[in-house]
Amino acid sequence: MGSSMKLLRRLLISIFIAAAITNLAVSITAYAGACYETTIKSPTPFNGNGGEIIILNNGTVWKENSFQYLYLYSYNPSVTVCPSEGKMLLGRHRFSIAPVETTQTTATVAAKESGVIESRIDGEFKGWDGETIFKLNNGQIWQQSSYSYTYHYAFNPTVLIYSSGSGYVMKVDGVDRTVNVKRLK
């Protein structure tokens, strides 16, 4: 085989290898683009318990649907979120999630667009017990609309109120359960 044929063969092999590496890099990038890493802003601590409303540091809001009860007590943990697959990974734990509001916007803009309200309870919070009234820092007043009892003391906790089927649900930071509410003002 002549030296020019050997050179041509090496060149073709190099091109083939470069193309294969490029295709692999594109495939890896496409796969990585489907998921992203961020941290959990709320609830604090994140327990990994069923039905939690999760606010991520990128402003997206998710509801945990796998209904595991892990009691992780993790503060601002790093997670991998795969929106197209409806999953969130935290270490070895895998959660099924669904968006509560549109993604790729700040929490404030997304909340206005989707009807999700983020505020704080004005003053002391001691849970709910039947017909509890919640006064928020934004001036709104909400009332418990279904019976349940939960005790939890907090001062000025963050709340997230969102539409859920036939009514509204309120999630109080630090409380594992949610409560159905109706707006009074």
Structural description of this entry:
With 185 residues, the chain is α+β, with helices and mostly antiparallel strands. It has three domains: 1-33; 35-106, no CATH class; 116-185, no CATH class. It is 21% helix and 35% strand. It has helices at residues 3-33, 107-114; strands at residues 36-42, 53-56, 61-64, 78-82, 87-90, 93-99, 117-120, 124-125, 133-135, 141-144, 154-155, 158-164, 167-172, 178-183. Strands 1-2-3-6-5-4 form a six-stranded antiparallel barrel. The protein has a six-stranded antiparallel beta sheet with strand order 7-12-13-14-10-9. A two-stranded antiparallel ribbon has the order 8-11. The chain starts with a helix and ends with a strand. Mean pLDDT is 80; it is low at 24-32 and 102-113.
Largest beta-sheet characterization: 6 strands, antiparallel, barrel
Instruction: Count every beta strand, where a strand is a DSSP E run of 2 or more residues.
Output: 14
Biggest β-sheet: strands ordered side by side in the sheet: 1-2-3-6-5-4
Q: Over the alpha carbons, how many angstroms does the gyration radius reach?
A: 24 Å
How would you classify the helix and strand content by structural class?
A: alpha+beta
Give the uncertain stretches in residue-range form.
Answer: 24-32, 102-113
Q: What pattern of helices and strands is seen along the backbone?
A: HEEEEEEHEEEEEEEE
